[in-house]
């Protein structure tokens, strides 16, 4: 790994697991695919993903290694690939999932599937062995600002769950139901954007399509979701500062949602709860990972200027919050 200057530290768990993953996949694929190792070789790896922060670094690491060794096996058989086909991606995904499950003790296929195939995909109610039919192949790349909140890991998932248990069961049920509603709305809006772009491509029409309002709706939904998580005790003061900074840059809008479920509907359902979190609806941030929330993300609109985003990054850095622009809905593993 480039972050470690090639120095292996036996006491470093990240180093240990990386080495175990490397040899696991090398041995597994070489035996299954009959790779002949007749000389020494060098594998160079680099990543811009924060390691150990719940952002899928272990899965992407396993996918890259599996793709490397799979392509090596094909080269030894005289097949030169510059683009992976469906069967190649299936092989890579299965090998990577074996590694992620055994070495990194992962119980889900989501990270390895996304790292392999890319794009945005919908998984159904925890049933993660297969993808649902919902995917968005026409969506353009989306930009987010990934912000490190400097939260120490002492504020763990366990302490957050204790915070949540202080609330009444009725309140928790309401919040979880609200999260389910806005999650469905998020998918609905993605579908609208996907269909708009598909129709333009189908008609071979180069005319500009206005999806800015749809992006603003996604932003509102993210804001609402973060407010609900905060009510459950799943936020942190540093994250609130990040969100407040983003709010000052105007990352806000009005919610337009599915089946007539509007912001006012939710307010009517529980006025007291939503008054407490309403101040967070205009914030631009959300916890980016489920394992402790040390990273937050700011959803960037398509019409945000580079100057505006750079100013926002500089403000974050002045508060000792490092930030980096990241693309979503990209392609999966590929040969470069």
Folded structure, characterized:
Keywords: ATP-binding, Cytoplasm, Kinase, Lipid biosynthesis, Lipid metabolism, Magnesium, Nucleotide-binding, Transferase. Its EC number is 2.7.1.36. Belongs to the GHMP kinase family. Mevalonate kinase subfamily. InterPro entries: GHMP_kinase_C_sf, GHMP_kinase_N_dom, GHMP_knse_ATP-bd_CS, Mev_gal_kin, Ribosomal_Su5_D2-typ_SF, Ribsml_uS5_D2-typ_fold_subgr. With 336 residues, the protein is of the alpha+beta class. It has 11 helices and 4 strands; from the N terminus they run ααααβααααααββαβ. It has 2 domains: 116 residues, Ribosomal Protein S5, domain 2 (2-Layer Sandwich), CATH 3.30.230.10; 187 residues, GHMP kinase, C-terminal domain (Alpha-Beta Plaits), CATH 3.30.70. Helix content is 50%, strand content 6%. α1 packs across α3, α2 crosses α3 and α9 crosses α10. The radius of gyration is 22 Å and the shape is globular. About 10% of the residues have low confidence.
Salient structural properties:
336 residues; globular; Alpha-Beta Plaits; alpha+beta; 6% strand
**Helicity level, as a percent range?**
40-55%
User: How is the CATH topology of the largest domain named?
Assistant: Alpha-Beta Plaits
**Inertia-based shape:** globular
Poorly predicted segments: 252-284
CATH architecture classification of the largest domain? 2-Layer Sandwich
Q: Could you give the order of the helices and strands? A: HHHHEHHHHHHEEHE
Span of the ends, CA to CA: 18 Å
Computed over alpha carbons, the radius of gyration is: 22 Å
Summarize the biggest pleated sheet.
4 strands, antiparallel
Looking at how many chains there are and whether they match, the oligomeric state comes to: single chain
Number of structurally distinct domains: 2
Helix count, DSSP H or I runs of 4 or more residues: 11
Strand content: 5-15%
What does the average pLDDT come to? 77
The CATH superfamily label of the largest domain reads GHMP kinase, C-terminal domain
The main sheet orders its strands as: 2-3-1-4
| CATH class division of the largest domain | Alpha Beta
User: Which structural class matches the secondary elements?
Assistant: alpha+beta
How many beta strands in the DSSP annotation?
4
EC number: 2.7.1.36
GO cellular component, one term: cytosol
Domain GHMP kinase N-terminal: 39-118
Keywords: ATP-binding, Cytoplasm, Kinase, Lipid biosynthesis, Lipid metabolism, Magnesium, Nucleotide-binding, Transferase
